[in-house]
Amino acid sequence: MDKNIKKRIAILGSTGSIGTQTLEVIEQQKDHFSVEVLTANSNAELLIKQALKYKPNVVVIGDDNKYDLVFDALDPQGIKVYSGANALSSVVQMDSVDTVLTALVGYAGLLPTIKAIEAGKTIALANKETLVVAGDLITRLAKEKGVNIFPVDSEHSAIFQCLVGEFHNPIEKIILTASGGPFRGKNREFLSSVAKEQALKHPNWEMGAKITIDSASLMNKGLEVIEAKWLFDLSPEQIDVVVHPQSIIHSLVQFEDSSIKAQLGLPDMRLPIQFALGYPNRMKADFPRFSFLDYPQLTFEKPDMETFKNLGLAYEALNKGGNTACVLNAANEVVVEKFLKDQIGFLEMSDVIESCMNSISFIESPTLEDYIQTDQETRLVAEEKVKQIF
Ligand code: NAD
Ligand code: MG
């Protein structure tokens, strides 16, 4: 794209952790980007504040009950206001949108992402759940439409950055780094009684509640293994995970000549966000610089898959294929929500997910309808299983 043309961005989930950091990036790079659409699920106050500051043409508030509040604040400013989940699927298709940054959380990202790809929009993908649920369908559709999906997730951005200039060279394998989360080194006895407050304290990253719990349970790394498979067209054996508690090396690629490339930096999501929006250009930014002298020791360990069962379950879902990862994701969304309400223990989360993976009917080549069905069915079954335990 011409460097002088501003890319017009739709941010789905602008009030969240990734959404607000995306707005920071856009503010610093005003010559390159403009805000066309902002959306939030229920935080009307922040959405209004953002809209008054960044002057998008359109906002969407998910919660219908908050429509009047948002409309009264923004309509006089000439900003169009819509509400409800369906509105997301329409606004991503507007002619005035170039890139859709998916920073909403969970399965809710699936349909709007499909609609955006169908309309030929470039995707900056933070919402990893979309690729976990329906990676085959999404990547097929993107290919068919000639649409690029640029990763925002820091590990996948690292791999993408390592691959620039190497797209013709086959990948031998990739190594995803994992911080290990707040419970690294803990045993199952300890984990059996941890409360949500402990799980919500991530050592290196400040993120939304769902991904923070996923990081504590290693499900986040499991979802990222599946995300990597689809983004980089890899087999499960080509994806390794190594625990690297300092979160300085964001991930690595090994090529067929044995060379390994890594991408490094301080943990700061604004860099991968900016890289995804600005690709192929690197734009000058004042993000804090990394110094090796501040980190004399970068360390690496094997992930403890005995204690943290979710990572193994994600590999299992990947190997099984079909709708299994959709089941894993839906069951995980249910148990995380329950854990955040103190309605299930930390370790029981994996038990419910595993039991759903064993009980929901397997579909070898799911259609979109099948995925929607699988998601709904799994949620009901998972809710039931949680009730039985609690
Ligand atoms: P968050 O909870 O902080 O924000 C979520 C945003 O999505 C909010 O704006 C919320 O209003 C909106 N939202 C929530 N549910 C919605 C729904 N049902 N419909 C429409 N909008 C909805 O989450 P986050 O930490 O910013 O994460 C967003 C996504 O990015 C997740 O998929 C996460 O895995 C991924 N991600 C986040 C980080 C990070 O550092 N936070 C890093 C890598 C990937
Ligand atoms: Mg990540």
UniProtKB/TrEMBL annotation:
Annotated binding of NADPH, by residue: 15-18, 43, 127, 129, 208
Associated pathway: Isoprenoid biosynthesis; isopentenyl diphosphate biosynthesis via DXP pathway; isopentenyl diphosphate from 1-deoxy-D-xylulose 5-phosphate: step 1/6
Stretches assigned to the 1-deoxy-D-xylulose 5-phosphate reductoisomerase N-terminal domain: 9-135
Highest rank taxon of the organism: Bacteria
Pfam families: DXP_redisom_C, DXP_reductoisom, DXPR_C
Cofactor: Mg(2+); Mn(2+)
GO terms of biological process kind: isopentenyl diphosphate biosynthetic process, methylerythritol 4-phosphate pathway involved in terpenoid biosynthetic process
Enzyme class: oxidoreductase
Domain (1-deoxy-D-xylulose 5-phosphate reductoisomerase C-terminal) ranges: 149-232
Keyword Hydrolase: no
Binding sites annotated in the UniProt record for Mn(2+): 153, 155, 224
Reactions performed catalytically: 2-C-methyl-D-erythritol 4-phosphate + NADP(+) = 1-deoxy-D-xylulose 5-phosphate + NADPH + H(+)
Binding, 1-deoxy-D-xylulose 5-phosphate: 128, 154-155, 179, 202, 215, 220-221, 224
Enzyme Commission numbers on file: 1.1.1.267
InterPro entries reported for this sequence: DXP_reductoisomerase, DXP_reductoisomerase_C, DXP_reductoisomerase_N, DXPR_C, DXPR_C_sf, NAD(P)-bd_dom_sf
Keywords from the named record: Isoprene biosynthesis, Magnesium, Manganese, Metal-binding, NADP, Oxidoreductase
A GO molecular-function annotation: manganese ion binding
Ranges for domain DXP reductoisomerase C-terminal: 264-379
Function: Catalyzes the NADPH-dependent rearrangement and reduction of 1-deoxy-D-xylulose-5-phosphate (DXP) to 2-C-methyl-D-erythritol 4-phosphate (MEP).
Family: Belongs to the DXR family.
Name of this protein: 1-deoxy-D-xylulose 5-phosphate reductoisomerase
Taxonomic source organism: Aureibacter tunicatorum
